[in-house]
Amino acid sequence: MYIKAAAAISPQVSFEQILQSPASYNSNRLNCAEPDYTKLFDARIIRRMSRIIKMGVATAKDCLHQADVQSPGAIITGTAYGCLADTELFLSKMVENKEELLTPTAFIQSTHNTVGAQIALMLKCHNYNNTFVHRGFSFESAMLDAITLLHENAVEDVLVGGVDEITDTSHTLLSRFGLYKQHAFSNLDLYNNHSKGTIAGEGAGFFLLSKKTTGNSYAKLDDMATLYKPSSPGEVAGFVNDFLHRNNIRAGDIGLLVSGENGDAANDKWYADMKKTLFNDTATQAFKHFCGEYPTAPAFALWLAANIMKTGKIPAHKKIKAPGKILIYNHYLTIHHSLYLLSAC
Amino acid sequence: MEKLMADLKRQIIEQLNLKDLKPEDIGDDQPLFVEGLGLDSIDALELIVLLQQEYKIKLASAEEGQSVFRSVRTMAQYITEHQPKTV
After folding, report:
1. Structural domain boundaries, residue A10
2. Does A80 reside within a domain?
3. Is residue A39 less than 8 Å (CB to CB) from chain B?
């Protein structure tokens, strides 16, 4: 199946910006570079939308516009945290007003499936609509559902995406778990200091998947796989090997490995061990210094890989030729591991 | 009454997040729903909350809302008639 269109809102303005000069932040969180939504939507339509909903709907709209699709066969969304800002607003009002006088908008907009629902409302699309909330496998579950629908010929095309946002409260709470570096940090120096913690990120990525290509597709999506809670990096190497084997390729056939190192020493050991075992001589492109760490970050990685495949330009390796095959490997907190295999089309 | 209507216009814009409107854009007798400001049923619930929060007035029935929320003027009249008297 093919990635006919790919769109993202991330801390980077565009793929071109990443190629030329990636946005630099001095913080332990990377917030999205958002467009002027008033130029994309009627003010009446977006007045009830929180930031994550606007990010998701704008990304989906861009993706559909690229593919020239008015109404996709299915809309599938993955999100780990859902619409946090409206959830916080609703819960705060509940406490402040002693469980009375609750405004309906924040409640309605706080559910995890609001992004997918708003896309459907905007398109007046009554087709299959589902949202997956599975921590570090939220985007992967959405992708798996999309691939299954296409394999079963249930639909012609699927709009599938991953969205997550950072709020001040979520950043404070997750910081207490030791997820993030304790001080401001340059995202472009993320891999030069292997201290504890990473930088928080957020973003929206949407893709139009189709069984057919029209000639201007970004890439062919050959396969994807997930591995839950492996006991050791050695188990991951076996998982990757099996994945390559079932696609009838060897590690040497991978032209570029897009991998999810996030600057946390304990976290990155898993990537280092896997690369040492299988991809010692393979060109690598990291991506968390562009988007930060969050559960649906693989949506950003897929968008980046699709753009690399389409343009033949690799941010970290400006002088090497376009890869024929790209493998994305990511894990979230060493628990949720995923692989995506892309080919040129 | 004039001050109350001016306050209401500001509160409606804030509560319903009507960022593209200014208080002077809302006419005293302009219909709030459908052909007027274009508000919908969710906005009606927000206005009920607004009345309770700002003016301590609870609508007796949902049907009452249709006449109360017809315009800013009808809202102001209802508030004037029903606001609890402070001692």
Report:
1. 2-210
2. yes
3. no
Residue among A43, A101, A103 whose CB faces B19 most closely: A43
Those residues with Cβ within 8 angstroms of residue B68's Cβ, 6 or more apart along the chain or in another chain: B59, B74, B75, B78
DSSP classification of residue A145: H
Of the CA atoms within 13 Å of residue A136, those in its CB half-sphere come to 16
Cα–Cα distance measured from residue B43 to residue B77, given in angstroms and rounded to the nearest whole number: 20
Same domain membership, residue A248 and residue A185: no
* Shared-domain flag, residues A229 and A338: yes
Domain tally for chain A? 2
Task: Flag if A101 and B52 touch (Cβ within 8 Å).
Answer: yes
pLDDT digits over A73-126, tens only? 999 999 999 999 999 999 998 999 888 888 888 888 999 999 999 999 999 999
Measure in Å the smallest separation between the Cα of A337 and chain B Cα atoms.
Answer: 41
pLDDT class for B61, splitting at 50, 70, 90? Answer: confident
- Dihedral over alpha carbons A181, A187, A192, A197 (to 10 degrees): 20
What ipTM does the predicted assembly reach?
0.80
